[in-house]
Amino acid sequence: MTGTKPQHAPQIYFPVVDDVLHVGGIPLPRLAQRVGRTPFYAIDRALCSARVASLRAILPPQVALHYSIKANPMPALVQHMAGLVDGLDVASGSELKIALDTGIDPARISFAGPAKLEGELTQAIAAGACLNIESQHELDNAARIGDLLGIAPRVALRINPEFELKSSGMRMGGGAKPFGIDAEQAPDVLRQAAALGVDFEGFHIYSGSQSLRLDAIIESQSRSIELAIQLAGESPLAVRQLNIGGGLGIPYFPGEQRLDPAPMGAHLAAWLPRLAEALPQARLALEMGRYLVGEAGVYVARVIDRKVSRGQVFLVLDGGMHHHLAASGNLGQVIRKNYPVAIGNRMNAQNDAPDSGPASATGPLCTPLDILAERMELAHARVGDLVVVFQSGAYGASASPAGFLGHPAALEVLV
Amino acid sequence: MTGTKPQHAPQIYFPVVDDVLHVGGIPLPRLAQRVGRTPFYAIDRALCSARVASLRAILPPQVALHYSIKANPMPALVQHMAGLVDGLDVASGSELKIALDTGIDPARISFAGPAKLEGELTQAIAAGACLNIESQHELDNAARIGDLLGIAPRVALRINPEFELKSSGMRMGGGAKPFGIDAEQAPDVLRQAAALGVDFEGFHIYSGSQSLRLDAIIESQSRSIELAIQLAGESPLAVRQLNIGGGLGIPYFPGEQRLDPAPMGAHLAAWLPRLAEALPQARLALEMGRYLVGEAGVYVARVIDRKVSRGQVFLVLDGGMHHHLAASGNLGQVIRKNYPVAIGNRMNAQNDAPDSGPASATGPLCTPLDILAERMELAHARVGDLVVVFQSGAYGASASPAGFLGHPAALEVLV
After folding, report:
1. Does a cis peptide bond (omega within 30 degrees of 0) precede residue B39?
2. Per-domain residue ranges of chain B
3. CB burial class (10 A; 0-12, 13-18, 19+) of residue A317?
4. Do A117 and B304 touch (CB under 8 A)?
5. Which of A63, A376, B63, B225 is 20–30 Å from A125 (CA)?
6. Across the interface, do A91 and B365 touch by the CB < 8 Å criterion?
7. Statement: the pTM of the whole predicted model exceeds 0.90
8. Which CATH architecture has domain A105-288?
């Protein structure tokens, strides 16, 4: 075997019974029958609840936890999350609609996005959601629309800090960025906000995401809180909310390990007294998407053909990159690596067939980009078997080119 | 200026009048009004016709030219192309529907794809389209469904050659591949096809795409024809069609040059006598997607905000990677490079503002992946201006994650 090669973090959330993966307590072949066709995404609601509970257990009760819908905007999932978290964060008018449809208090919705349209600003102000303001220009637009509607817009300033979350998969802060207001420009914009009479909520400081280094996350949290305290000292408006984002990653690729967030809870608890002193009205909030739902979901596709081409085994699936761009390696990755993949209805079948060995799982598209697994050690699969891609609860269907080559969209179920 | 840096190939197809780009003969701001909103794709039908005509002019009249719908399946465009080419090639049941809707003779449609579903095979056989068979397993399925329908399926064998198109953007042949039947397995499959009584069309040999080296394309065409002649010698069935794909690329990135296909025409003409001798019933066909429509289309988005962050100018657009994944650098590129981009309503405005200099064009998504232009020399743009991405007629809207973050889809117009 491949003992010295980096391995995927073990799959610890979905039980295997009699060689069959269970999702939402249901054997995978039964789930596929129940869904009606492959391919599909299945999100396990109990795992989402458990992830939120585990975070609540290590976080001080004063710290709010928000779900960032963009990670997975499936309405049934957002409805489930709305009952678990303190706020929903949206990134478009369409996501705002999904959030409002859950019945959550609009005061617990915030809307970030660097190019909010006139109609989206109007939606958010009319609904009473908080706008995370990305620029002076957007602040002016919000105030103008607020005047038209006769509503003082609720706004927070999204700040582009001078630092970034180190070793993060996605750097959202530091240096020149299209996101938010450069920290050094914020005092001017705060004075403008006061003059315009908007309903000021506070700050949104987001320095990166998908980090697997808790020390880096903790450091960026400290710097975000310090920055907020500094900006608040120059603000004519009181800070009621301080959203410092999330940043916690999940393991996707061989060699990556799950992080233990417990020290983050202790670290934030240690900050609270100073925060209460400096910003007495402020509630600290963490915003997370991927970390809350990413490990709770799988993508499932069926083997349509099994081919041996020049000694290599290809499992040709009815699903692929058009449903799961990230797993194909085409969503920001520089070098393609495999997500954790398994044969869900025969998890540990012996590779005793004559053409056994590493197998690749490829999709129905006529492009060599359509790969879900490249030369992986998989159980011996046959036509009709179910290939499972783990770590697929976030940035899956919604982040993929569903229309590419005109194949049917993936179904999505919450179980 | 940047005289020594590699430059984009000059834009020679869309005229600029009074500093304004014209698409389909219409000034861009007028076109945007006519479309109704931004962002949108606009394909210039006259440019598509001209490209087909220029190829016809250099190709021997015996060589058929097919349009591969997957490059751009917009129905109005497919309808237009159906009137210009000799065949339509589809890659899914949905693309087959679009092709049939044009009214083209189904005998001139072929269907390739490595994971054709039972329903898709049925569709194609019922319609009388030709199946490009990807494996023995698929051949068996097609024959079985043909028996059920009482129709002998029209089939061609898709061959995975031992060679590949050198220096191509997408390698589709050579080595172990999920596409087609390995050339060395083809004689066995041909005997099976004869035994199964299918209606045999010939071969589909596709070695790669998006090559800008005509010598490599010509070499792979020779090898494809040689391979077909060799396989035909071992075939109990006569070859009526030989589709050798396309491979011709278009220039996307700085330093890339348009190729001159004229020598390819002479090269194929030189092959025709030998082909007529070896395969007297066979018509040679070229299949192209990107090369026919890629340079005929632009993507247009509007500047919603103009920000200067730490000395860098960002044009924040209402469109981005969710509409144009390839231009964002996330469709198979290893290192992100800029597509050719311009400010369509002020193509040559002086960069005389105090904050002038290279500008980046970014989209509305809350992710640093959402970039359409990175530090490019652009005319000085203002809020409301129209940013144009050239070379966007192929693999645009349909190859992009339209649902990502819930922003509206791009419109598509043929003008």
Report:
1. yes
2. 16-43+295-414, 105-288
3. buried
4. yes
5. A63
6. yes
7. yes
8. Alpha-Beta Barrel (3.20)
